[in-house]
Design brief:
- This protein has 261 residues and is α/β, with parallel strands linked by helices.
- The protein folds into 2 domains: 4-201, 2-enoyl-CoA Hydratase, Chain A, domain 1 (Alpha-Beta Complex); 205-254, Lyase 2-enoyl-coa Hydratase, Chain  A, domain 2.
- It is built from 12 helices and 9 strands.
- The strands form 2 sheets. Strands 1-2-3-4-6-9 form a 6-stranded mixed sheet, sandwiched between helices. A 3-stranded mixed sheet has the order 5-7-8.
- Helix 1 links the parallel strand 2 and strand 3 (48-53).
- Helix 1 runs parallel beside helix 4, helix 4 runs parallel beside helix 5 and helix 10 runs antiparallel to helix 11 (225-239).
- The radius of gyration is 19 Å and the shape is globular.
- The protein starts with a strand and ends in a 7-residue tail after the last helix.
């Protein structure tokens, strides 16, 4: 059975981590499957993505048996080679969701530890069950977060909170994670809420949604104010008067749902 499944409905892509007997722990096959799923939906006509885990947890992190296997290989090549743009394969399981050109919503329940948390961090929005637990767990194993965490966590957390979570590897309850900014909101049924939000986004202008994701990423990249303002104008210029924008206005004026092609 595939470690990762992908399905489509109503212009929404559903990507599910499917190793429930292991709490969706990451081994090499799953890492490859996650990257392949991200590449597939990036090339699709999906307007939003829902990312979830089957079974009792979202993802409990790296499978320790897999870690032992990785340790037998040429670690310098495995870790240092940039196989996916600016990332190695371990980092790409998180960063691929930032490369997907449409919004990605993670539905988190159960354990969301280590590499699993970093995958969720790659999503644009994180919906967590109130009883979910999250952890930057690598320090427990004498390691640092190295699956995209340090490219993503500083954008969400205060520096003192980031340091505390990294150094202690403590498991954080979802309400505390919400207070610190690690998750976006809580929901009794995260998958249902993620699906609801995906449908809301998918009903908006697909070209404007994609432009907004590009623009937010650019604004967060460290570009100067002048560069961001110029990019903002360029993205807007590409939208004004185009079919999607005309349809958005027409639908509002006619008080009907828009029909984007």
């Amino acid at each position: 059975m595939s470690r990762v499944t992908t399905g489509y409905k109503d212009r929404i892509a559903y990507v599910t981590l499917a190793r429930p007997d292991k709490h969706n722990a990451l081994d090499e096959e799953m890492i490859e499957g996650i990257i392949a799923a991200g590449q597939e939906v990036a090339d699709s006509d999906a307007r939003a993505v829902v990312l979830s885990g089957a079974g009792a947890s979202f993802c409990a992190g790296l499978d320790m048996a897999a870690l032992a296997s990785f340790a037998q290989r040429d670690l310098s090549t495995l870790i240092m080679e940039r196989t996916h743009h600016d990332a190695n394969a371990f980092q790409e399981v998180a960063m691929i969701w930032r490369r997907v050109p449409v919004p990605v919503i993670a539905a988190i329940h159960g354990a969301c530890f280590g590499g699993g948390l970093q995958i969720a961090l790659g999503a644009d929005i994180r919906i967590a069950h109130p009883e979910a637990r999250l952890s930057v767990m690598e320090m427990k194993w004498g390691l640092i977060p190295d699956m995209g965490g340090m490219a993503l966590l500083p954008r969400l957390l205060r520096s003192d909170v980031l340091r505390r979570l990294t150094w202690t590897a403590e498991k954080v309850e979802a309400p505390q994670a919400l207070d610190w900014g690690l998750v976006t909101e809580l929901a009794g049924n995260p998958l249902s809420r993620a699906n609801e939000l995906a449908h809301e986004i998918a009903a908006k202008s697909p070209s404007a949604v994609r432009a907004a994701k590009r623009l937010i990423a650019y604004a967060e990249s460290g570009a100067s104010q002048a560069e961001v303002l110029l990019r903002e104008s360029a993205e807007q210029l590409d939208l004004i008067g185009k079919p999607d924008q005309i349809e958005a206005v027409a639908a509002q004026l006619q008080k009907r749902p828009p029909e984007f092609t």
